[in-house]
Write a structure and sequence with these properties.
The complex is a heterodimer. Chain A is α/β, with parallel strands linked by helices. Chain A is built from eleven helices and eight strands. The chains are: A alpha/beta, B alpha/beta.
Chain lengths: 314, 379
């Protein structure tokens, strides 16, 4: 079973999936998120991948199934509620059961270790929280590489390293990294090379796991997982900008951030809509911001230049 | 006949725009105001005497008046990326600039967004909620992909909560009988509209009439005058001459171009007639069910863009077959990624044009002309 999953909104407690971060694919769809189109490419082209699971949370992801209709692989579109109330928890719990059944039926196997996997997710997230708390002392790009690396592995093989290199520029201006999932740590390295000190992030692959509440192992496990998923750091695609702004404001102040580098994929509308109001919040706090849109057409040198200019401003 | 049809149309339009301008800055209208997305269960709002405004429709009106470029630039200055849905760019630009062709809408008391059409609209509504500091309600419709019973229970809980919150906002109590009558009005409007749409393949009618005519099914579908208006419209156009069979029938697959005087590229189609369009069927909601909660669930959970890829494709095939089209002009709309893949497997020669329904600067007319030339050769 080699299921490629898109986004941190796919539950890891049901079965192993390989988290997608990037692929140099052939499928190019105009005015469409590159991240989603590369995901489609990998599903279509990579013989090692036999399944796809993705959330239906943005306009690009809600059409992925159409592109994969004839791929002959396991294709599952996960509806993540756009609300966080009791009805949404209950609905999501039912969806988790349905997802489990769909995987079992397609692969002809029983998934009997949800409880054990939940315990492993709790442990892994606890360890990640430890690393995240010490982030100001660590190299952020190495931390991000470690997170990306472990999410590509089966849950049982995921080890949170306690041996990350130290922060290369601890006296530099303190910045946060926010935005959509990163395809790699390239921009983080450029930020560090510009002398900036990354003290925290609001990325789905990192902070959603760090912010994820411990899941109780007693009671209805699916309800517990659903509640934890909806209580973790929300994506703008979950339609609660007020909560994002409130939580991010607290975190930025707690870590005394002087700047925020907001990185998004081109055509990533949930973040495109969040940005104007996010920038307003930062302006109100006197925190400077830099927006980087990863389009695939911008060279590394160009990105490095804007990051350097931003560093000089701080 | 023409007089009745035009009178009814004028009345619907007058009613809808009644409160624009005068209540935009501070003064409060008598009724509470909701800004809603195009597939909101407005029967609930109408039953509670809440006024509802459709920003998307208004963006189309702004583009039709030729004002969209300045407003798109205005919203871009405020940080809204030009890649976002141009409906939002155009409308938010009007709010920032404080001006629009028919005035500004009354300020909202509540914002209601649904995701049964796309996921862009709730994002746009979130942004508006931050600007206006009013409650935001996002209605979450899982669509056809979900288990029906599970989805019914989830959606109905939200509809009931919407009723409770709107009762509180308006100070009115929901009358079940009134809600039933309003849903019946919507059904009647849909039935009457379908008859109008059925004329397009047969009669000498410009699709412009339908692209503009459907706006009342969006803004006024549960008002009794709407079915009356569409019935009058049907009677008027049923008396039109037969379609010119010398011109090849083509299917317009995608949005109207709101900025274009004819809403489609008439200048590139001298030898063709548009005999069908999927856009004009989108609001033909199916209020199937035994009681109001079930009817609202069926209508709003199973909107066209919330159906599975397979069902959408089948519906589209039926729609194209009914039009008798021999070719299709498929639009890849920069503003609407949800509609990107509707054009597959239709079994007809087609050209694919890159457009935006609001932003006229987006279309490369030379390229569009070349593609139409290729289609002409194929046919």
């Amino acid at each position: 079973m080699n299921i490629l999953s898109l986004s941190g909104l796919i539950p890891e407690q049901i079965c192993d999936t390989i988290r997608f971060f990037g692929y140099d694919g052939q499928q190019r769809i105009s005015h469409y998120c590159r991240y989603a189109s590369d995901y489609i490419s990998q599903i279509l082209e990579d013989p090692e991948i036999d399944g796809a699971v993705f959330p239906r949370t943005c306009d690009s992801s809600r059409t992925i199934a159409s592109y994969l209709e004839e791929c002959g692989k396991f294709v599952y579109s996960f509806h993540i509620p756009a609300r966080q109330d009791r009805a949404a928890v209950s609905y999501l719990a039912d969806s988790l059961r349905r997802y489990k059944t769909a995987v079992e039926q397609h692969y002809g196997t029983g998934l009997t270790d949800v409880m054990e996997r939940t315990s492993l997710v709790n442990e892994r997230n606890r360890a990640l929280r430890g690393s995240y708390e010490h982030l100001p002392e660590l190299s952020y790009s190495a931390y991000l590489d470690m997170v990306h690396g472990l999410l590509r592995k089966p849950l049982r093989e995921q080890r949170v390293s306690d041996d990350l290199p130290s922060c290369p520029c601890p006296d530099g201006p303190k910045v946060f990294v926010a935005g959509s999932t990163q395809t790699g740590s390239g921009i983080a390295r450029q930020i560090e090379a510009a002398g900036l000190h990354i003290v925290g992030d609001r990325l789905s692959e990192s902070h959603r796991l760090v912010s994820s509440p411990e899941i109780p192992l007693e009671g209805d496990i699916f309800e517990n997982i659903a509640l934890s998923m909806l209580s973790s750091m929300p994506s703008p695609s979950q339609d609660d900008f007020s909560r994002i702004l409130r939580e991010d404001r607290e975190e930025l102040l707690r870590r005394q951030a002087q700047g925020v580098i907001f990185i998004t994929q081109k055509y990533c509308e949930p973040y495109d809509y969040l940005f104007p109001t996010y920038r307003k919040m930062l302006d109100g706090l006197g925190i400077r911001s830099l927006r980087i849109t990863v389009s695939g057409s911008q060279s590394e040198n160009e990105t490095a230049l804007v990051v350097e200019t931003f560093a000089n401003m701080l | 006949m023409a007089q009745l049809y035009l009178q009814l149309q004028a009345k619907l339009m007058r009613d809808y725009y009644r409160d624009f301008t005068k209540y935009a800055k501070g003064r409060k209208p008598e009724r509470k105001v909701a800004w809603v997305t195009a597939f909101t269960p407005v029967e609930i709002l109408e039953a509670l005497d809440i006024e509802y405004i459709y920003p998307e429709s208004y963006a189309a009106v702004i583009a039709a008046s030729g004002k969209e470029q300045d407003l798109l630039r205005e919203s871009e200055k405020g940080g809204l990326c030009r890649d976002c849905c141009a409906y939002s760019g155009c409308y938010n630009g009007a709010l920032s600039a404080g001006t629009a062709p028919r005035g500004l809408p009354p300020r909202p008391d509540v914002l209601i967004a649904t995701n049964n059409q796309c996921n862009t609209l709730p994002g746009w509504w979130n942004l508006l909620a931050q600007d206006y500091d009013v409650p935001l309600i996002v209605l979450d419709y899982p669509g056809e992909g979900a288990d029906r019973e599970q989805a019914f229970s989830y959606v109905t809980a939200q509809h009931r909560e919407l009723i409770a919150r709107m009762e509180e906002l308006s100070g009115n109590r929901l009358d079940d009988g009134r809600l039933e009558r309003l849903i019946q009005n919507s059904r009647d409007s849909v039935a009457a509209w379908k008859k109008v749409v059925g004329l397009l393949p047969e009669k000498d009618i410009e699709p412009t009439v339908l692209f503009d005519g459907i706006s009342y099914l969006i803004t006024s579908r549960c008002k009794p005058e709407t079915a009356e208006f569409y019935t009058a419209m049907y009677e008027y156009y049923a008396a039109s001459p037969e379609a010119d069979r010398g011109r090849k029938p083509v299917f317009w697959l995608g949005y109207p171009l709101w900025y274009h005087p004819q809403r489609y590229l008439k200048e590139l189609l001298p030898d063709y007639r548009v005999s069908g369009s999927n856009y004009v069927t989108w609001w033909s909601l199916d209020y199937d069910g035994d009681e109001p909660m079930e009817q609202l669930f069926t209508a709003y959970n199973y909107t066209f863009l919330n159906l599975s890829a397979e069902t959408k494709r089948r519906r589209l095939q039926d729609c194209i077959a009914a039009s008798g089209a021999e070719a299709a002009i498929s639009l890849r709309n920069k503003s609407c990624k949800c509609d990107f893949v509707s054009a597959r497997y239709i079994g007809l020669p087609q050209v694919e044009l890159e457009i935006d329904m609001i932003d006229r600067e987006y279309l490369d007319m030379d390229r569009a002309g070349e593609l139409m030339g290729i289609l002409r050769e194929i046919l």
